Structure formats: C-alpha cells, structure tokens
Amino acid sequence: MKQNIYDNATFFKNYTALRASGINYNNFVEQPAIKSIISSLKGKSVLDLGCGDGHFSKYCIENGAESVIGVDISNNMIDRAKRINKDNHIEFLCMPMEDLKLSNQKFDLIISSLSIHYVEDYAELVRKINRLLKTNGEFIFSTEHPIVTARKGNNHWIKTKEGHKLHWAFDNYQEEGMREHDWYVDGVVVYHRTISTLINTLIESGLVLDEIIEPQSTSAGLKQMPKLINEKRRPSFIIIKSKKQN
Ligand SMILES: C[S@@+](CC[C@H](N)C(=O)[O-])C[C@H]1O[C@@H](n2cnc3c(N)ncnc32)[C@H](O)[C@@H]1O
After folding, report:
1. What is the CATH number of the domain that holds 62?
2. Which domain holds residue 104?
3. pTM over the 0.85 mark
C-alpha cells in the first residue's frame, strides 16, 4: 500500500506549519544528526528520496553538490519544492520512490530523511538503491526508530494521573508490518521493521555498513523544546549510513 498522506489538506497544513515554526524534532534531533554523517557533498550527484519540499535537496546544492534529484509521492510537496527552489537547478519528480526507474543514472549519494518508514517493501527499495549507487557511493537514511514504531496504537508514554511520564511502553517488536497512528489525522500508515531487518537487508543487498546514529537533541533544542530531554530515555529516530564497495 502506498499512502499519500501529505496530500491530505489537513495533514499538509499542520505539517508545513510545524516545519515552518522551526521548533520541531527535525531541526533539533534528526537534521543535525543526518547532516553530521555525510562525508562530503562537494561535486556529488545526489538522489533525495521522499524529498518533501526540497529543503534537504537545497542544503545539498548549497554545500557543493553538483546535481540533485528530489523524488516525492506528494503533489503538494513537489509543487512547494519547485516554488521554493526555482533558482536552484534541482530536478523534482513527483512519484512514489518505489516506482523510480532512472535506468541510465547512478549517484554518489542517495539520501532519505524520515521517509522510508512509509515504504512497505524495504528490501526491494534497498536493491533498487544499490543499483542506483556508483561504486563507493553512500546510502544514508533516517527513519522512525523501531522502539517507536513497534507498539500498536497511540500514546506510548505511560503516565501518572498528573501526566508525569513514567516509562515508554514497548511491545509487538518482532511483529513487523503496518502500523496506523494518529498524527494530525487518523490512520497515518508507517511500517515497523526490526533493527536486524533494517541492517541485514542492507548487508544482503551488498552494501557495507558504515555508521549508525541514535540521535539526541542538540542543546538549542533542549532550551526551546524541553520535552526533547525524553530523547535520552528512548530515541525517536535511527540514522544508518552504508556504502557500495563494488
Ligand atoms: C516526514 S516527510 C520528510 C520530507 C523531507 N525528507 C524532509 O526531511 O523534510 C516524509 C516525506 O516522504 C514522502 N513520501 C511518503 N511516502 C513516499 C513514497 N512511497 N515515495 C516517495 N515519497 C514518499 C511524503 O510525501 C513526505 O514528503
């Protein structure tokens, strides 16, 4: 199933407002970590999977990438990406990343920021990514951490009557597959995978594991969004970097 929730008007309005505020998990937890793991962008050809409004594609160009292609399933996102980046020479394609062909192109870096948990067939996607990488090319992606996606339903913090967070409830870990949660709208679909699936699928496709980050908040984040202290109790995201050696 390919859900296109970012084209839901309510979802899109709330999501873009959250990102525009600058006060969010992306800015204070995930983005600093994924940026820190990129070796270099100078002269690189980059494919940005699930590029959203293209802000990461823009970051790549601003930091020396030679070319960037951004791909996203959402018309809303790609329209916005084209508008924001009209002077940036980035190519944006509106399609599910699963359907990408690009048979004549290979990339130095394939990046995907918080989009792969929306893809059902991770193994097929990783095989495609391997084919699209040049030798020594890197695949870097962030995804919701399996600690966060494992349990079914919402409200994973177990709290006292006063609302104090006692602990994070963790369950259903080995049961991979679809999870529905409520985020601005009901029934947002993501796919839960275990750590071993996330990693072994890369290895089975021939990629070599390079680095893993389970990020915490930056200190600026802790000041502006005090609840990010909870990233010390359980990570929201995992970032994995692998390489194609031949
Ligand atoms: C959390 S947003 C992240 C956007 C962007 N990478 C960023 O960091 O700002 C997830 C994005 O993945 C896109 N997406 C979800 N499923 C997709 C799929 N199957 N193929 C391509 N894009 C997808 C959504 O439309 C959305 O723009």
Report:
1. 3.40.50.150
2. 5-145+178-244
3. yes
